[in-house]
Design a protein that fits this description.
alpha/beta; Oxidized Rhodanese, domain 1; 5-stranded parallel sheet; 9 helices; 12 strands; globular
Length: 288
């Protein structure tokens, strides 16, 4: 059997159903519980106990993250990342397909982590395991966190894929790109409290608000032509777009949307508002 090459950074349930026996395919469940309501669409209550057959657990919230960081699920260094994904049987030749159990929410973060490590044969399952379940396809109660076969993954780190507060501060003060915030307008303008304690309300001066739900149709990603319209309102596809959010998770939804829309220069502010919103000297505003 020939090696699978994922056709896009986003694939459908139908594609997975047709290709799930690919010899180099690795399916990962990267689910993280949303800290805010995700969708109005009904999601089965027991979906967290159901998994796509053959999937392995990719826990970037607690395990595949920087264990010494002060902020949630920060990107680990290349050596640690590689050691962890080898335990999942992942090699440089693997086609890595990632999903989560509420739609397109946590999976883009894992997708971007692989992209940051130079692995481009990686995609998100549109609609996640909810779409798989609603299609009436077989599900499993098993979700191992390691593979019986070890992989041979050698990273080729792209350090520009994630950035820090200093890079964001500099971008806010020049015209080479745009900082786009995936939080709600209520949080962006300080009308609603942050879900995490001890953080200021408001946003970075000069940043733009695109709540991540704007690039979604409930549990699915919007078509590329719609994504171009949404993101084109605030960012130039030819320039750098840095995505930020509360903790660096939903920012990756915007990053996936931007790639599908044809943006080429993308980065994620890893610590996001968990760092910027702390009491201190980093500038915060409630105004446009």
């Amino acid at each position: 059997m020939s090696q699978l090459q994922l056709p896009s950074s986003l694939v459908s349930v139908n594609w997975l159903q047709e290709n799930q026996n690919g010899e180099n395919l690795v399916i990962l469940d990267a689910s993280v519980p949303p800290i805010i309501p995700f969708t109005s669409r009904a999601i089965p209550e027991d979906i967290t106990q159901r998994h796509i057959p053959g999937a392995l657990r990719f826990d970037y919230d607690k395990k595949i993250c920087d264990q010494s960081a002060n902020f949630p699920h920060m990107m680990p260094d290349a050596d640690y990342f590689a050691a962890q994904v080898r335990k999942l049987g992942i090699s440089n030749e693997s086609a890595v397909l990632i999903y989560d159990n509420v739609g397109v929410y946590a999976s883009p973060r894992a997708w971007w982590m692989f992209k940051a490590m130079g692995h481009d044969n990686v995609a998100v399952l549109d609609g996640g395991s909810v779409a798989w379940y609603q299609a009436g396809l077989k599900m499993s109660a098993e979700l191992p966190d390691e593979s019986s076969v070890k992989g041979r993954f050698d990273p080729a780190e792209r350090s520009e894929s994630f950035c820090d507060a200093m890079a964001v501060y500099q971008l806010l003060h020049d015209s080479t790109g745009t900082v786009v915030d995936a939080r709600s307008e209520g949080r962006f303008y300080g009308r609603d409290p942050e879900p995490r304690n001890n953080l200021r309300g408001g946003h970075m001066p000069g940043s733009k608000c695109v709540p991540f739900q704007r690039v979604l149709n409930e549990i699915y990603m919007k078509p590329p032509e719609e994504l171009r319209l949404v993101l084109g309102e605030v960012a130039n596809p030819a320039q750098l777009m840095v995505a930020t959010c509360g903790s660096g998770l939903s920012a990756c939804i915007l990053t996936l949307a931007a790639e599908l829309a044809g943006f080429k220069k993308l980065s994620v502010y890893d610590a996001s508002w968990c760092e910027w919103g702390l009491p201190g000297k980093l500038p915060v505003t409630l105004e446009d």
